[in-house]
Amino acid sequence: MINRVTDINNLSGVSSPLLPLIYGDFDFSVNDTDGAYIQYDTQGEMLCAFSLKNGSATVLKSGNVNVEELEAFFGFLDVCDVISDFPFGFQNEKALPVLSLNNLSGKNTLTRILTSESTLNEYSEIYDLLNKDSDNFPQWYSVFSKKINNSKAVAAYKCVDGKAVSTAVSTAVYGENAVISGVFTHREYRHKGFASECVLSVLNELNKLNTESAFLWCENDKTDFYKKLGFSSAGQVYIRKEI
Predict the structure, then answer these.
(1) Can you tell me the distance from the alpha carbon of 111 to that of 185, in angstroms, rounded to the nearest whole number?
(2) Do 171 and 148 form a contact (C-beta atoms < 8 A)?
(3) Which string of b and e fits 43-74 if b means at least 16 CB within 10 Å?
(4) Which residues contact 3 (CB under 8 A, 6 or more apart)?
(5) Angle formed at CA 222 by CA 217 and CA 226, multiple of 5 degrees
(6) How far apart, in whole angstroms, are the C-alpha atoms of residue 17 and residue 26?
(7) Strand spans (E) along 149-243
(8) 3-state secondary structure of 183
(9) What fold is seen in the domain 100-234?
(10) pTM of the model
(11) Residue 184 forms beta bridges with which residues?
């Protein structure tokens, strides 16, 4: 049985690096079906918690998940992309390493930070670095600017000659945890330390928000980069993306 969550405190006690994403999807919904949900067994025990946002699902395992019910639910709502802290067994599912950093400090670097005073152009430059689909910018900006203004997200970016060339973004900051979900440097400006500067700036800003732990997931060949910044292995997440 799947019920929509009306009180996010229902998820208290659930532990997962994906939990900040669930809170973010609950608080900053876009479509009518966006928000948080819980799957229960016949005795009322929670099997998993998940959120929906704009055709994507984030799933946290709590018990013996009824995968068939979830797949039917996702199919009914045309959910295309799924990220979970356990393997669904999808044909095109991919496992990515999760890294974590505790006792955040970071440091001030020569980067810029998004604030409530930031312009639409600043958001646009960051979006262009992180995404190729410009049609989704209005929706992304609407949600992400609200998160920035409410201290539920952090973004740092590096400028060269007045142009943003590198960025690091935490799209979900909730309680003591945060998820860093986007780090990118324009190809022409790589291997100059710009990505490291942006990540350290994000960690510094998260520390100001009293965040204790930051999580991220990446391709296997990127783990050494983050470990040099102090991150350590913390498990895996499983991602299915529809092309």
Answers:
(1) 13
(2) no
(3) eeebbbbbbbbbbbbbbbbbeebbbeebeebb
(4) 37, 38, 40
(5) 75
(6) 16
(7) 154-160, 163-174, 177-185, 213-217, 232-240
(8) strand
(9) Aminopeptidase (3.40.630)
(10) 0.89
(11) 167
- Tokens read off for 24: 């973010």
pLDDT above 90 for 107: no
CA distances from 189 to 83, 121, 231 (A): 30, 20, 23
Specify the domain boundaries for CATH 3.40.630.30 within the chain.
100-234
Q: Which long-range contacts (CB under 8 A, 24 or more apart) does 86-93 make?
A: 86/59, 86/61, 86/238, 87/238, 88/59, 88/238, 88/240, 90/240, 92/240, 92/241, 92/242, 93/238, 93/239, 93/240
Residues written for the chain: 243
pLDDT digits (tens, 9 = 90+) for 2-47: 999 888 877 766 778 898 998 888 888 888 888 999 999 889 888 9
| Residue that the structure tokens 């007045």 belong to | 162
Contact 241, 84 (CB under 8 A): no
Q: Which helix (H) or strand (E) holds 145?
A: helix 137-149
**Cα→Cα distances 51→45, 129, 132, Å:** 18, 26, 24
Q: Tell me, what amino acid is at 119?
A: T
The residues, any chain, with a CB within 8 Å of residue 88's CB and separated by 6 or more, are 59, 67, 70, 71, 82, 238, 240
Containing H/E element for 58?
strand 56-61
Please identify which residue in the block is written with the tokens 């998993």: 48
Helical (H) or strand (E) element with 71: helix 67-76
